[in-house]
Design goal:
15 strands, 12% helix, mainly beta, 41% strand, globular
């Protein structure tokens, strides 16, 4: 009897491991248009993000975004102006890039990343980057980049 239960649990684990990650990303918001903060002069917010225009600070908390295949080709998911900062709160922040030619973040100058949270950036792109055109990158936390 114990062998049957063990085999059932093992078979379930194997099946879950074979599922594509998109099956588990059902709660992610699809990003088919870039979040562009370069010329944004007023505060704004959305699912998992908040933009403070005066401080030029993007705060991410429970940020779950996915760029589908063939979307935002040769563009970035998130554009930031010069002297921007990103504050990451919580451990449930994930940006998934399924397009083969899309940057995750594009900043036109210095970028500071701070906060006590984590941000996981997963990309299938081999010709574009997670963070592009940053003159100086200051980070006060652990950065995780997955390809």
């Amino acid at each position: 009897m114990n062998k049957k239960i063990f085999c059932g649990v093992l078979a379930t684990a194997v099946l879950l491991g074979a599922c594509p990650t998109a099956v588990f990303a059902a709660d992610m918001t699809t990003l088919d248009k870039s979040l562009d903060f370069r010329n944004m002069t007023e505060n704004a917010s959305g699912d998992g993000w908040e933009w403070n225009a005066r401080a030029q600070k993007l705060t991410l908390k429970d940020f779950q975004m996915s760029v589908p295949h063939d979307e935002l080709e040769e563009k970035a998911a998130i554009y930031l102006p010069e002297e921007s900062s990103i504050k990451v709160s919580g451990d449930n922040n994930h940006l998934e890039i399924n397009s083969i030619s899309c940057d995750a973040f594009y900043c036109e100058g210095d970028l500071e990343i701070s906060g006590s949270g984590t941000l996981e950036i997963t990309t299938k792109s081999y010709i574009f980057s997670q963070i592009k055109k940053v003159q100086k990158l200051w980070h006060k936390q652990k950065l995780t980049q997955n390809k």
